[in-house]
């Protein structure tokens, strides 16, 4: 068993809005959130006051403890206000990908029985369609303004009393992001107030922040990585978060230069751009102090190339998953120079880890030996919503969460993730379940069988590649027809990028797809 070298941290038994904003009065006029496109700024005093007024407005509208509110928005400076207002009103927040199709959105709404939606006016049509398909949604609010809809802006003038909701941080769910776990369709991950707040305290000794630090939030807040690293953690310590709605390289670089960004939390595709794109040379990025990459594996050579170009310490990595609130490992800021290339970091405070044999799961392995990574600590999720069997398959009776990732630890405690047991495809940090795409492919009348694996494209992104068996009656089925069939029914990040037609899908006697054989047969782009 491997244990963190940091001292344990006591559980943070506070609602997440209090755990993050308890020092808002101290930070006062310090900018908390800045819109990276137009410069609109919210101070800590405003963020604290605004979220309390919006909480009162939500409560007046009927939001009650135990309700689920779906937050459906790209990154905006209103997103944190909406999130903390909802939790203060007693709701659990399920975050929704803004590019989800109405059908995908409806599945999530129905699965978690969401009664409320907060969205933005450009996404209203999608939200309305999803609400119609799911049923049970009482009202759709907007962060900005739209005719016929109550706005969070209007709620700032609410005179109703601030809701006084009794929250049990250890049991009540604060966030309900959706994750496919190690396999299968997306499931609601129940993260309590205590789990999320304690994970912030666990990360603090390794990743310090405070007034004067400026973090650029380009990765989405709806993803647990963005929610933690770009929203909750910096706002807890008085840092300033500069918000961008999406990644556009020129806008991204301009924001670093113009807002004097000091810290970047990114995914590998952004590291690639920083390392290689000629546009980078046209901007002054000298304010940057460090870069941390997570959400997907980062090649050590690419990390080094990025650091050299920016004149920074080596790019650090972090490791975790939605089911772990999400952090378990990070390269500490004070150890970035000495961290071995390719490591995802060391155990954060209060966290234990085992590496177990893939052939004999009860056997613990020593340093240097690769096996499945198991994690135990206060950040382990409460479970999957409504899926006790899936929860039991993920977390054993001793509290160990089985990550589905393969890795090893060196003699100094650095973790290296070398492979994945799980078959999820991670496209730019977003999870794509092969089973979901396979089921969709099989709805095409000309597809007899199908399998999907992840392959790496020329940009270093893992993308879905479909292996399709044509129906005997459709020998002329084309790649473009298959790609279009999927593209019309899923969010952009889930789209199949390549199709290979084969005579039969290799399967085990149990019927399980033998993806290893497909990977062996596929020659990845160089």
Please provide a written account of the structure.
Helices cover 29% and strands 23% of the residues. The model has no long low-confidence stretch (mean pLDDT 94). Strand 26 (462-470), helix 15 and strand 27 form a beta-alpha-beta unit. The chain has a nine-stranded mixed sheet with strand order 3-2-12-11-13-14-15-16-17, sandwiched between helices. It contains 16 helices and 27 strands. The protein has two domains: 2-405, ANL, N-terminal domain (Rossmann fold, 3-Layer(aba) Sandwich); 426-521, GMP Synthetase, Chain A, domain 3 (2-Layer Sandwich).
Which keywords apply here?
single chain, 526 residues, alpha/beta, Rossmann fold, GMP Synthetase, Chain A, domain 3, 2 domains, nine-stranded mixed beta sheet, five-stranded antiparallel beta sheet, 16 helices, 27 strands, AMP-bd_C, CoA-ligase activity, ATP-binding, nucleotide-binding
Based on CA inertia axes, which overall geometry fits?
globular
Largest sheet: 9 strands, mixed
The overall average pLDDT, rounded, is 94
CATH superfamily of the largest domain: ANL, N-terminal domain
User: What is the percentage of strand-forming residues?
Assistant: 15-25%
Q: Report the helical percentage.
A: 25-40%
Write out the strand line-up for the largest beta sheet, numbering strands in chain order.
3-2-12-11-13-14-15-16-17
